[in-house]
């Protein structure tokens, strides 16, 4: 083994430098190479040709490397006493790779390159020391590099995990913003609806009230014109008015069949008149015929009465439909309440939602099994959003034809702490194609959508929002495929739970 | 097939069979056959079992089959009947009067094609101002003038498009709506008598007179009929104003339109002018009106102003209708059927005046329910025979009875079904049938009176 | 007067159907008004009418119907020889542009009526379209003159030479 001092140098380089120093000192040449520098002084600069090799006897030196494209000096390596400085340049003969700066008062041996060989010639024992010192220095640097590499790696992985956290935070932020926008939307909708409801309710009320009064006046006028209603014709007229007022509409097929038959009973009547008689329930045609003896003028009188009644019914139905829609819209958006959380019967919200989405679901077979469930303290408008989302999704999945099964009930469930608590559940089952297995997990992810375009209705914001809303109530939402093949969404909500505020 | 048609079918067949089964004394075998055809045609025409022009075609076919030299039946020399060559029955379709009508049709359809009728109306109406009475007079004068050269129906349809915007601006209760709506068909019917081509019955009568060797010039007919038309026009105007006096003080009359100035349009304007001028002046140059009628046919087709599709669209069925009527007259005369019918009624008991009145009244009554042409076709053989048999007396008598039938027929305008112009007017919904019955009846009666007066005081003096 | 020309009204809400038919009663004495509440029923009806040698002059069709919708029905009627020249009108409360474009392009949609409609508008459109149909398809349009556009029918008599002196 050439390295007599072995690993000892690595731990105590002072010994080697001391040895070196001693050898030079013995020859009286130490004085010549001895070199002292104060703190913070540059020994040599990066890129300069290096003519000396420095042996640090005492003090600390820091090596710097200039970063590309700017002037920042990047601290590279810290060297203590016993280190060789400029060793790479010494071996390769190239300009210095680093800049060296003192960090306190330092003492070096500065040996010009050209002197090194000369010195070795004079002191052959130096050759061994020097070699070993170089080797020790390089080994040290190699060790440092490895440590650095390790550090870098751990920093990288830390960075990676921080980046992931950031990404998640950004996602959360996006969701939160979406929820906020949605909330804002609902609030705006609420305001709009409140104004709208007021504006629509007034004319509707006027319409319905005037119709009411008109009906009374019409009756009075009839009384005046036709005496006290003792004539058979007038009585029948009143009867037919009531009939028109209350009877439902037969379907068009029935009307057509009856029209065909009635044309034989009333061959002298025009198409319009026969069609009107055909809208009366069975038996009334004969009554009209008997009371009037087929006299056209009297028939017309009776038909007018029936038509009057029907028109009143139409006006009333239409007016009530408008009023009902406005009411649903109001309670759907909860524009009439200040506090978002209140005690509600969730079934009312489901009914409101069904009414407001009626243009999308009116051709479906609707099965409702909604028994009484306990009231819960909840954000009604929020839950309505959930119902809307699920119903509209079902509608998108089914197209024009299909069936929708909506049920609710009560049950018990263990909460996170393992305590049994009361819950209510609502399930929506459609007859669509169902959800592909691979999507069942993803369906509540924020950006997941099977729709090509956004929600047409403009009220839904997707299942992720629905999930948020349900979770804010301390509940759960679950998607699965029903036995029949359609999709089923089940929402469970705890009863009597203090709500977190959204 | 509805009830009426079915009854017509049955009655027609019965009528056709009667002369075949029952032998009438004094009537020859061909006479019996002609009577069969006559009864069938009369019933079918009355009940419209088949379209009236189809009946005419059927008449010609039956005549060819039963009565012509080339027909199914060979008449012995002893029958006293010299069978007519079939070409004489078929040839009625090329009768000069048919050619005259063809010329009239081409002229009229070309006028419609180039909007000449409407533009004429626009120009002619201008001088009549805005007072309802005057406007109405203008409308009637223009209608009568156009319908003297065009079909009464086409003229009425055109004039209805003119009056509907006017009526729309008037109060719904203004009686002038009724008078204006009635004035158009009445004027069209009246205008039709003024010229030989005014309306098809004129053709049937003129053709029958021609057969008797009486050539009626275009201008002479106008000389006979125009004064009556003018008087009746004025009377109708006066009557309608009396019955439905306008409430409005003035009627805004706006007609938009522009004369077409294409080469073909100019050709039509010139041909129209020249043809009418030549017709009216027949006595000056002597060119027969039927020959003149070839001018519009030839010139308008050779210049392509009147094209193949236009020729196809001509009312050919009217020509068949007239031809059937003419050939029925031929058959009745040739087989002695007409003589037999005339002979079986004792006319001697009636005075001359009563006789003419009967023809006038029967014409008027029949044509109120039947087509005017059909009425003329059924009555003219009898009238002519009566005249030639000496009951009425002389060539003048023949002409007078022809005029009575033609004119009385055209003055039938009591019901919507009396004439197509009446039907159009009632269809607009502005006029009710009862309004038409009242004024139509008065016009009919006055017309008959005037016709009778003319047989005494006017026609004998100018013939 | 009885006529073989039909007006078909298709609407699934009875009150609305009733109102449409009531608004066009003035045509009912001259045209048969038939009602259907689904497109499928309308198709059966069309077949029945055509079998009995009837013609369908006008269809007033709601857009949103259970099953087949109004536009689909009109497009299919356009493809059928017997109902190709039928005048087609869409009545709708929801104006979906795509569907409208389809109806105009493929069903030769003549008019588009938005709910709520005005009676005058509905009557005017009905009158115009039936007049078109009658002028195009009826040999003797005279009986329709009163209830339809008399001026245009008179004009068709003048230029179409549909009537002549007799």
Question: How does this model look, in words?
Answer:
- The complex is a heterotrimer of chains A (502), B (463) and C (166).
- Helix content of chain A is 54%, strand content 18%.
- Chain A has 502 residues and is an alpha+beta fold.
- In chain A, the strands form four sheets. In chain A, strands 10-12-13-15-14 form a five-stranded mixed beta sheet. A four-stranded antiparallel beta sheet of chain A has the order 1-8-3-6.
- In chain A, helix 2 (13-26) runs antiparallel to helix 6 and helix 5 (113-122) packs across helix 6 (124-225).
- Chain A is rod-shaped, with a radius of gyration of 47 Å.
- In chain A, 28% of the residues are buried.
- The relative contact order of chain B is 0.13.
- Chain B has helices at residues 3-21, 29-47, 52-67, 86-90, 96-113, 116-125, 132-149, 152-168, 175-192, 200-211, 218-243, 263-280, 282-285, 289-292, 294-302, 308-312, 316-334, 337-344, 352-369, 372-388, 394-410, 420-427, 433-457, 459-462.
- The mean pLDDT of chain B is 89.
- With 463 residues, chain B is mainly alpha-helical.
- Chain C has 166 residues and is of the alpha/beta class.
- Chain C is built from six helices and five strands, in the order E-H-E-H-E-H-E-H-E-H-H.
- Chain C has helices spanning 14-23, 39-51, 70-79, 97-106, 119-137, 150-160; strands spanning 5-10, 32-36, 55-62, 87-92, 111-114.
- Classes of the chains: A alpha+beta (502), B mainly alpha (463), C alpha/beta (166).
- Chains in contact: A-C, B-C.
- The interface between B and C is medium-sized, with 34 and 17 residues.
Query: Secondary-structure element sequence of chain C?
Result: EHEHEHEHEHH
| Number of DSSP helical runs of chain C | 6
Radius of gyration of chain B: 23 Å
The coarse silhouette of chain B is globular
Low-pLDDT regions of chain C: none
Proportion in helices of chain B: over 70%
What is the arithmetic mean of pLDDT of chain B?
Answer: 89
Helices and strands of chain B: which structural class?
Answer: mainly alpha
**Quick one: biggest sheet of chain B?**
none
Distance separating the two termini of chain C? 23 Å
Cα shape of chain C: globular
- Overall average pLDDT of chain C: 86
Unreliable stretches of chain B (pLDDT < 50, length at least 5) are: none
Beta-strand portion of chain C reads 15-25%
Terminal Cα span of chain B: 49 Å
User: From the structure provided, what is the oligomeric state, counting identical versus distinct chains?
Assistant: heterotrimer
